[in-house]
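User: Quick one: structure for sequence A, then sequence B.

Assistant: Sequence A:
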Amino acid sequence: MAELRRALPLRTAVSTSAGLASAAINFLACVQVALYAGGSSGWLALIVAGVLITLSAANFAELNALYPTAAAIRVWIRRGLSDEASMVMSLVYMATVVFVIAADAFVLGHVFTAAVPGIPGLLWIVVLLAVVAGANLRGVKVAGWVQDVNAFLLLGSLVVVSALALGRVAPAAWAGVFHLGPDWVQAVALGVFIYVGFEWVTPLAEEVTDASAIPRGMFLALGLVAAAFGLFTLALELLVPVSRAAATLVPQLLLGERALGPVGFWWMAFVSLTTAMTTFNGGLVSASRFVYAAARERLLPPVLARLNDRFVPQWAVVVLFLGALVLAVAVYATGQYTLLIDTGAGVESLMYALAGLLVLNLRRREPDRPRSFRVPGRRLLPGASIVLFLGLGMASLTAETGLPGPVPWSLVFLLALVLLAGLYVRTVVPRLRARRTAMRPPAAQP
């Protein structure tokens, strides 16, 4: 079977990690952080949240140092817990990427409708997803180039526009930038979700030219995301009434207009386009490699492990594209994007807690296995990440979604996914593996 090709530099590891964490829904999350923070200290809550998320990044860095593989979390859970738990959790984890793409597509559809009312938002979504899927099928270098250009353009534009906006702030308005409101801790907790998705760069471990690019890329990406969205939040708090920003799905367009007039409006509309490219493209690149690795082990149908002549798992890309497209259309038609956001954030947080547990378990089970990176603080930091992200995950899964009744619908949705994944593992996976065994040539007789 053909193998993936090592062709990606550190730059693309950074852009992939940063791009997956820089979804369009981040702009809405920044507004919510500002609402909870009180005063104008939402930017500070984001910085503190960025420091906390590095605990999880350190755990993923150690796990990647142990087993740098496209299967990533699948291998780590199998080695640290059990094979069946690994299969179930991997399937649920893969679904979160599709959730993020679909929820982001809903927000982006409204952004483009606000900018160009004559073109339906749904058409933008279909075209962008198709363009990204086409770029992915052209090869990992093409997909990497798309990710580099859009991610750095996005983060750079946020820094420049926010800085220009801050230049228009009256001196008296700066008085509240360090004022911490009574719900400031909740603002920090919500701020963690600005960074969700950074770890999905780990499935590219078999395609980077240097194995150390994955952990370095994650840490650099978190710094860039903290700087860009921290400045954006500060500028938004000082220039746009938070109540007005909370009443729209396009707060970035409001800030751009306040900063630079019509030029700023269209600039931020363009920035929103780059978030689509980074999220859609980064999601397809990383998730398709994860699907490819799962198919190699017959966790998924083997056709998903086939590479085209450009070393791309083409059917994995196509299936993810179709799944994201169908779900995006459904979300756009119903408007129920909050359920996907809360479920996705909950799954990610629980995985961050699990990463800390896996670090501790693998240190106990495989103490002599070489590690090029080790989380400092012995058991303290991995243990702290378990407690922190377990609490954040449950908070997200029990948050209100706008659906009727006092039911934690995100938690119900996640439990249904786990049950379906468990049923798939118990019924379908044994057949896939039995078929592989039957296809193997008989051993040679001595």
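Sequence B:
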Amino acid sequence: MADYEAVIGLEVHVELKTNTKIFCHSTTAFGGEPNTHVCPVCLGLPGVLPVLNKRVVEYAIRAGLALNCQIAGFSKFDRKNYYYPDLPKNYQISQYDLPLAEHGFIDIDIEGQTKRIGITRVHMEEDAGKLVHQGSISTTPYSLVDYNRTGVPLIEIVSEPDMRSPEEARAYLDKLKAIIQYTGVSDCKMEEGSLRCDANVSVRPRGRAEFGTRAEIKNMNSFRALQKAVAYEIERQIDVLEEGGRVVQETRTWEENKGITMSMRSKEEAHDYRYFPDPDLVPMIIDRDWVEEIRASLPELPGQRKERYVRELGLSPYDAEVLTTTKETADYFEECLKSYPNAKIIGNWVMGELSRLLNAGNIEISLCNITPGQLADMLKLMDKGTISGKIAKTVFEEMFDSGKDPEQIVKEKGLMQISDEGAIASEVDRVLADNPKVVEDYRAGKEKALGFLVGQVMKATRGKANPDLVNKLLRDKM
């Protein structure tokens, strides 16, 4: 990479969270028996006409405004012609030269610096179906097609080729996903196909203005996979150039198990799709008052929320960034604050223990057993001295598993902190008598010796002794 520079642009497809499809009344619900969420319109049967779902346009405008785009006053739909078994009409209704929104941007944080990534356009289109590849019939592989997803409304968000590393691409995706989730137009669940991303990657010698030949990478099912795929593709293209070869413009797929990209087909150009205005859909004139109504209804977005946390709650920019990464996490954090107004302590628990347990179980925070009120109640037990910080972690894990209230868990498991000075003093005396050499070390100025003695008392009391009182008694007696 010392001699080369990567150039990366991303195309992100987002399914909009409408109740019905973009041009018909069929449901957009995820799942269902194959080919049951369909009708003559989304199946492209003869004699049917599409009718535009107004909510799709509203959501697309909402997303475009959140991404700092200019909303077009005049826009239209086009037919993108190609054959694939999951495309029943043999064309996709999309937008070509007059998209709904253009010229936006996202600011990302990279190594303490802010970098602006341009957004070329946001346009609407319909989704295709899904192919399910099966084993074989008489040793011949075959595929099944499920058209339930056909006609589900999408927006495609196309970035400028402004990213220069896999880390920047990942930061852009994280920020984009957060913004879209905050607007409420999509749940962005990659596991359900609500958010999908293709990456265009090229490399060029450092200092050269012209872009290199790009390859498009498809079939990445996670942000982690995208980061790995982009990193691999950059190395692959550099190797090709270093060996005197020529990078071919093509579409490649990411093979997760092998950790490599592989060629799928040559990359299509716009003229290959024979775009032309869809004759069944009239152009759209977007009312400016409607656009401003939508703008006024936008919620506080992640960047604005982060700034408020730093300004009003005194959090560090890093903590505020982590807590606002998803709307659900930020909402949970703020709900906790209503009952326990200490942002730093709550933030530490949400980013620490709660995040650890959620990640280990691959659980969304919205499905967490611990309510914000329960977390606040546990912190209050710590403040009252009922439980220690060490015991709190045990209580927290039990809350996470069972959903029980912290006070109930403390009573059932006998975890109440020992704050009786007489009971602790007897253990302190025993530990001091058993460790005369450590006592001498402490009196000789070795402060670390105190930590060992505290640990012995806590071990003897099974972590229930009040640690502040243990420290005080040990110091007094020595």
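Residues 223-242 form the longest helix (20 residues). The chain has three domains: 4-290, 300-413, 421-477.

User: Thanks, that's what I needed.
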